[in-house]
Amino acid sequence: MLKIIFGSSAVRADQTGKQRALARAVEAGYVDLALVLIQEGADPTARFAGEYADQEQNETYLSLAAASGVWAMLDDALSRPHDIHAVDGNGRTALVNLVYNAPQKEDIFPLVDRLLAAGADHSELDRILLDTCQANSGAHRPRRQYQYARLQRQYASLSILFSRGSTGHA
Questions:
Q1: Would you tell me how many other CB atoms lie within 10 Å of the CB of residue 108?
Q2: 130 located within any domain
Q3: Is the backbone of residue 165 left (phi > 0), alpha (psi -120 to 50) or beta?
Q4: CB neighbours (10 Å) of residue 150?
Q5: Is 148 left (phi over 0), alpha (psi -120 to 50) or beta?
Q6: Residues with Cβ < 8 Å from 105, sequence gap 6 or more?
């Protein structure tokens, strides 16, 4: 099916469309589709817009892969040239995007460990902890409140953040 789609000269020439499709595939954790899009000319080193056309998230391939919560997607991103400390339009690194956006059904802490082992800054854990506490106090109203609810409901998660290097100071 993809061979037929990419057989079209209009599709092959649409670099913007391939980039948009790559971003969606990576966010969703569709590794095989992402690899095909890259093979067909989509650029994983480019910055990507947000989920909606009016968002200028300026996200990296690594950040989108981390947010997917899919091991194979994260491994692919880490195997490519990347800046582990790159930030998006909201000032978030791949580590922060992983915690805020990974699917709620996933245990994200092995993925957190993977990013820390790849050089992610432990101080990002402090930012996550601070944001969680601010959300709980009402000082910060995130657009996706459920992102914080997972950490708020699970006190064990907070102790895990501390055990992985968070000092509680952002």
A1: 21
A2: no
A3: left
A4: 15
A5: alpha
A6: none
| Total of domains in the chain | 1
Confidence of residue 109 (pLDDT cuts 50, 70, 90): confident
Q: Which of 127, 53, 43, 37 is nearest to 90 (CA)?
A: 127
Contact 63, 99 (CB under 8 A): no
Contact 27, 67 (CB under 8 A): yes
Could you read off the pLDDT of 61-98 as tens digits, one per residue? 999 999 999 999 999 999 999 999 999 988 889 999 89
CATH number at residue 84: 1.25.40.20
Tell whether 153 is covered by a domain. no
- Residue 51 counted as domain residue: yes
SS3 99: helix
- Containing structural domain, residue 42: 2-92
48: β partners: 59
* pTM greater than 0.90 (yes/no): no
